[in-house]
Amino acid sequence: MASLKELRARIGSVKSTRKITSAMKMVAAAKLRRAEARAAAARPYADAMRRMLAEVGRSVAGQGGQPALLTGTGQDRVHLLIPMSSDRGLAGAFNSNINRTTRNLVLKLQAEGKTVKILPVGRKTYEFLSRDFSDLIIDHRHLAAGKEIPFSAATELGEQITALLEKGEFDVCTLVYNRFRNVMTQTPTEMQLVPLALPENDNADAGDVAAYEFEPDEGTLLTSLLPRNLQVQIYATMLETAAGENGARMTAMDNATRNAGKAIDGLTLKYNRTRQTNITNELIEIISGAQAV
Amino acid sequence: MSIKVKIVSPEKVMFSHDADMVVMPGTEGDIAAMPDHAPLMLTLRGGVVDVYEGAAVTNRFFVAGGFADMAPTHCTILADRALRVEDLSVDDAEARLEGLEKSYEAADKMNVPALDILMGKIQSARAEIEAAQSAVPISSI
Fold first, then answer.
1. Assembly ipTM
2. What CATH number matches the domain at A23-249, 3.90.700.10, 2.60.120.10, 3.40.50.300, 3.40.1380.10?
3. Contact B40 A232 (CB under 8 A)
4. Which of A8, A85, A248, B28 lies most in the core, judged by the most C-beta atoms within 10 Å?
5. Buried b (16+ CB within 10 A) or exposed e, B105-140
């Protein structure tokens, strides 16, 4: 049986672990609130962008010579995967979900005979994937250098993807990220970035049939809208990842805090029992000593 | 009669208010959105967006390029980057311009689309410097 001293030390160490996890939970909750606010603030731009793209897309539908971002290269041979994870761990299954989904996707594509290239975003998925697929990784990025994710992070990644597409480095580009359902649930989701599925116009049946005019013209507008749209989509997933990371961490740390509480209760019970046993033993010794005299 | 004006940057909604007229810098020349304007979508160059209520400018924003969606009742400006003119800094813009000019020198002169994009950014930085230098309190316009 463990000595009283050992038990005291263990209770103390679990207590300080509980303090840390509950502090992390609090921090994650505060960060989650900020991340959600930022994600909400970025939505109007994405919505307006989608509306414009649907409108322009409708008017160029059926015309030839459309940008590669929209139509792809016409092939389906080389796949570029962009898994997006957080930079830090201790967020439950948040990052391992992304890692597992990406891994399965890579194996599936390779089984189909496709060439796979990976561009991981976020330190955690990069570290994981470089173990098994280090020869497939063409580049990697961190999710956020600082506290907040600036739009320029999405711009850089978007420009890199566009440049790779122009060089013919890939045919299809898929982003793997955690979709933020609510604080408790984030679902690993695959989103195809290139070729892009044009969004449907929401107001199409609302009687809003006024034909738009375009300046300079549809083609030029589309060519400048598409790269922007790519960046906006990437930015949205980055913000969602940031929110999801903190949501997952909050949930994980809440569980950890609760488990630590349970462990402390168990240990305290054991400590008291041991203490009682020791006292009883000492009493028996004293009494039997007194009787022997 | 007024139109709903929204100026949106990727990060947030900069401005959302009713106004009588908005003058914005289109790539093919300045253009004003007014009530009952025919639906129009256009690309913007770097420059200043003036929001009018009555005959007076009530708000001025610098946008570094973007898109605009005009309709009879609303006008949405999707700016690549948007700032109130009062918040502009000449030094920042000049630093940015210098960087851009360097990358223009270094750029591949055969890659015309990339050069066009770079030229657009340089134009936008020049417009930003100009706007920052001319920034005056709205009351004195």
1. 0.84
2. 3.40.1380.10
3. no
4. A85
5. eeeeeeeeeeeebbebbbbbbbbbbbbbeebeeeee
